[in-house]
Amino acid sequence: MEASGVADSLLSGACVLFTLGMFSTGLSDLRHMRMTRSVDSVQFLPFLTTDVNNLSWLSYGVLKGDGTLIIVNTVGAVLQTLYILVYLHYCPQKHTVLLQTAALLGFLLLGYGYFWLLVPDLEARLQRLGLFCSVFTISMYLSPLADLAKVIQTKSTQRLSFSLTIATLLTSASWSLYGFRLSDPYIMVPNLPGILTSFIRLWLFWKYPREQDRNYRLLQT
């Protein structure tokens, strides 16, 4: 195998490994829900939006014939669906959760209908679906900015996960390189905000270390 082929295989493997590692961070929430039989301190919308994101990228991967995208997003969609079902099982307000799920799934089905029925040209469908996936992914990466502002305001990184930050950084970087390697801006560009927000989180961990956070809370009490 040529050197370029080996590099492509390693990069593809890194994308799969790091992304599945990032998705598996939700297993701690799953364990918490099963042990406490409640959804206290567990957020539902990240599960739902990530699931929709996985299903969208899965469609793009199938249309493009990209095995790496297909594997990662198939496993990711299965995991996120599992998280959603467990959350729904223990959530006392099932009506709200079901409404949110139905709304996003309805939005996804409308998108499928548009891309697969109203855009007959394969190349145009690939471009428009890629653009949709890119915009959705960028919005997901930028959505936690409000939480980062709250961290700065409170000088506490208690609400941040260091392991998830590292996983997001490695995942975003590997997919950006993968997209660059394939000359696919729809894969490369939306992962750049993930790198940026991960570095911002790492800076916050350095700026407000957990030891300082404990001392700050003791002073407050």
TrEMBL record:
Membrane topology reported for the UniProt record: Multi-pass membrane protein
Pfam families named among the record's database cross-references: MtN3_slv
UniProt entry tagged with the keyword Membrane: yes
Classification via InterPro entries: SWEET, SWEET_rpt
Residue spans crossing the bilayer: 6-23, 69-90, 97-117, 160-180, 186-206
Record keywords: Cell membrane, Golgi apparatus, Membrane, Repeat, Sugar transport, Transmembrane, Transmembrane helix, Transport
Location(s) in or outside the cell: Cell membrane; Golgi apparatus membrane
The organism's place on the tree of life at top rank: Eukaryota
GO terms for MF: sugar transmembrane transporter activity
GO CC list: Golgi membrane; plasma membrane
Keyword Transmembrane: yes
UniProt record similarity statement: Belongs to the SWEET sugar transporter family.
Quaternary context: Interacts with TRPV2; the interaction probably occurs intracellularly and depends on TRPV2 N-glycosylation.
Function of the protein: Mediates sugar transport across membranes.
The protein's name: Sugar transporter SWEET
Organism: Castor canadensis (American beaver)
